Each structure stands twice: as structure tokens, then as C-alpha cells.
Amino acid sequence: MTKIIVRGGQRLTGTVRVSGAKNAVLPILAASLLATEGDSVICDVPLLDDVMTIQNVLASLGAQITYNNETMRVSAPIITSFEAPYELIRKMRASFLVMGPLLARIGKVRISLPGGCAIGTRPIDQHLKGFEAMGAEITLGQGFIEASTPTRLKGAKIYLDVASVGATENIMMAAALANGTTTIENAAKEPEIVDLANYINAMGGKVRGAGTGMIRIEGVERLHGAKHNVIPDRVEAGTYMIAAAITGGDVFVEGAIADHLTPVISKLQEMGVDIIESDNGIRVRAASQLKAVDVKTLPHPGFPTDMQSQMMALLLVSEGTSVVTETVFENRFMHVEQFQKMNANIRVDGRSAIVTGGVPLTGAKVCATDLRAGAALICAALRAEGETEVTGLHHIDRGYVNITGKLASLGAQIWRVEEEAETAAAVNAVKSASVSEAAPTTYKRDKEVAVLKVQPTWA
Ligand SMILES: CC(=O)N[C@H]1[C@@H](OP(=O)(O)OP(=O)(O)OC[C@H]2O[C@@H](n3ccc(=O)[nH]c3=O)[C@H](O)[C@@H]2O)O[C@H](CO)[C@@H](O)[C@@H]1O
Ligand SMILES: C=C(OP(=O)(O)O)C(=O)O
Fold first, then answer.
1. Which tens digits make up the pLDDT trace of 233-271?
2. Which residues bind phosphoenolpyruvate (predicted)?
3. CATH of the domain at 173
4. Structural domain total, the chain
5. Does 34 sit in the ligand 2 pocket, CB within 6 Å?
6. Going by DSSP bridges, is the β-strand pair 64-68/35-37 parallel, antiparallel, or unpaired?
């Protein structure tokens, strides 16, 4: 079985560079479907399994895509299908974000209910409510959603019952080409929403207020391709900050934007970690003895749920008792059972986990139950006595570029063992190579000859 092996006890030092943000690049690539003319050139695109999945989704809909040197070029003058392939949509939550662009661009879409990390029921009612308010007719059945609109979508006033990141993004993209103005109230405020709005505006869109709870989108008739640099991944940055702190290390997280990490930084400071912010990154210096703190996850600018499990790893080695409360997803404590295999003292009580810190962690065989759980287990393993084997790597590969190589460069004793020796050579070469060395890849649809142009019904 493919696994990561960590031998704990090394203090991390040095510099680690943060890649482009997964949760920003995925909606941005979906939004590139909105451009009827010109190529989009997206820079700082991380080499992640989720990025491969979204580019395959785009290719299946008719987009032409190349990827080289962390730059993805997307051209979608013709949309050839209104049906997003089930086997891709079920892999990843963000693939559902093609629904808004397809509805806006061609007025028709058939898509399955999305997959993604199994951290809760993750309904999509707020996305659908938004599209319906804009005039889409939606039918659901047998795990599929079909939506269509006989005319261009209409601008609407939409209030989200929950400040959903995905619903805000999907509606924002649909509204960009709608007839009239859309307002999204109780919109999500995450930095990834702002990045998407900046990209849509670079394409000729008119989005105002992104980053606040009220976003106003004036629809335009057409959008064009644009060049855009993806923001650095705040969750990846936060993960390396925790990795540094848990080993009592001294690490410069290059590219991390402190403004995007305010709640994480402030919790680390409360625990006694020294944080030095600068224009091009964040330096993390940790004492060997840290204090317990309570943490409650909330939508941005609250403490991010995507950092909850990594923070729990750090609390395991801090003096005192902490209460970690998860309010965003109802099933995001699956890492607790895995931590317990490493001798952690944690008790779950409803939406809270009570962590008794300071108990020595020991290496164990553990499994990544979701993406961030996997990262958190690696963090804990860096501190644990002895060797830890982490399996379930398909989760980690969705969201971390070369995590073993990056941690090893900081002095961690960590390596990846592939299932079969032959695949090891190939996979490691791709994962560890700087992306600039990777050959450009062109993704094309299988049936290039049978191009079916899907015209909007109102064209
Ligand atoms: C690809 C991506 O960007 N993923 C992120 C995105 O996921 P995602 O966009 O799926 O998360 P949401 O913000 O939509 O979910 C937040 C909460 O709202 C609920 N909800 C959501 C939509 C809806 O229609 N109805 C509803 O009830 C969800 O079940 C959840 O309890 O934001 C999450 C919250 O910061 C992060 O953990 C994910 O990493
Ligand atoms: C939950 C996450 O991703 P997704 O929404 O794609 O499942 C995550 O990035 O931590």
C-alpha cells in the first residue's frame, strides 16, 4: 500500500515555499469557461490531483488546456457538452462549480451531486436556490441535477442561509453573464472569493464587494480570457506553520500572506509561538513548551475549519486542556480516532473535542480519513517518538504539492513508499520535480472529430 513514513523527533528549520491555493484555483479554472474569446493564462497553478480533475472536467466540456511551469492556459470559445462526467464530479466537491458557468454560458447543464472530503452531509441547496432565483428550472433525480434556462439568467437578490463558499462562487460566476444585477447577501468572505472576483473582473466582469458579506455583480454580455496569478495557499501555509511549531522549529513560510492567516497566527501567538510577519512570508519560531488554547471554527474571518485538525495536532503536545469546537462541518473529527492510535488523549463530546495535551505521542500505523486529517497526522508524526506510517494518501495528494519533499527540505525524516517499485520512480519524479521541469501537457477531448457546438438557447 502506498504510504508516507515519518520518523519523528527532528526540529524543522529553513524555508519552505507555499504553492498556489487549491481552493482559489479550482473556482478560477471553472470560471475560465465563461470566456467566449481569448485565452486565460492562470499562473501559480499547483500540481495537485484536484487540479488534474478540474482540467479533465473542463476538457470534457470542450475547453482546450495546456499546463507548463505552473501556468495553465485555458481556451473555451466553444462549449461542446452540457454534461459534466459523473466519474470526475464524484471525485471532488469543487467540480460542481462548473454548474454556474455552464448555466450562464449555454443555459443548460446536467451534473451529478458532487463528492469531496466526507466531513459532513454537504448539501448544495444554497447553490440551487441562487440559480432558481436567477430563472433556472431545476430537476433532481437519481443523483443527478438538470438545470436549464430558456433565456439568459436574470439578475436577482439572493440571501444565503449559510455563508457558503461554494454557493457564493457558483452564483457569482453565473451572475457575471446574467442580464441585470445580482446581489448576494450573507456571502462568504474567504480570500478565495476575492481572488475569484478579481479574475472575473480581469475578464471584463463587474463584481463589487467581494470579501464582504454583500457582493454585487452587474452582468455583462460577454467575458474574455485574462491573465491571473492565484493567491498562495493559506491552508498549506498554515500547515507548515504548525509543522514548524510542533517540532519547536524555526521556519520561514515563503509566500504566506499574514492577512489571510489572522486567526491561525493569533492562536499560535496565544500558545507562545513567535510569529514574525514580513512582505514575502511568515517566520515561525517555537519554544519547546506551548500553552493549551481553545479553538472554535467559523466562516472567514473566523478560525478556518481546514486548519482544525492540524491545530489539534499541535494542541496534543501543549501543556493543559483545550476545547476544539467544529461549527462548520458536522463530521470533521475523524482524525481523532487516528490520533488516539498515536497515544493522544482526546474525548469527543458532540461538536467539541476535549484535548488533554502534553501526553507523549508515539508512532503508529494511521490512515488519512480526509485531506486535512492527513496533513494533521503528518504534523503529529513529526513530533512522535518512533515511526509513523500514514496511508490514505489519495486525500493528501488532492491538496498538497510534494509534502514529503517540502518537509524533508526542512530536515524532517519523511519519505513516500509507492505501492509498486516501478510506479514509485515515475510518481516520485513527477511529484518531486520542480514543475518547470515537467513536460507541457495538452488535454484534449477523446472525440476531437465529433465536435458538437452547444449554443445557448437564446443565441
Ligand atoms: C473547494 C473548496 O473551496 N472547499 C472549501 C469550501 O468548501 P464548500 O464550498 O463545500 O463549503 P461551504 O462553505 O459551502 O460549506 C459550509 C457549510 O455550509 C453548508 N452548506 C453549503 C452549501 C449549501 O448549499 N448548503 C449548506 O448547508 C455545508 O454543509 C457546511 O456546513 O469551503 C469550506 C469551508 O470553509 C472548506 O472547508 C473547503 O475546503
Ligand atoms: C475540505 C476540503 O476540500 P473539499 O471542499 O474539496 O473537499 C479542504 O480543502 O480541506
1. 999 999 999 999 999 999 999 999 999 999 999 999 999
2. 22-23
3. 3.65.10.10
4. 2
5. no
6. unpaired
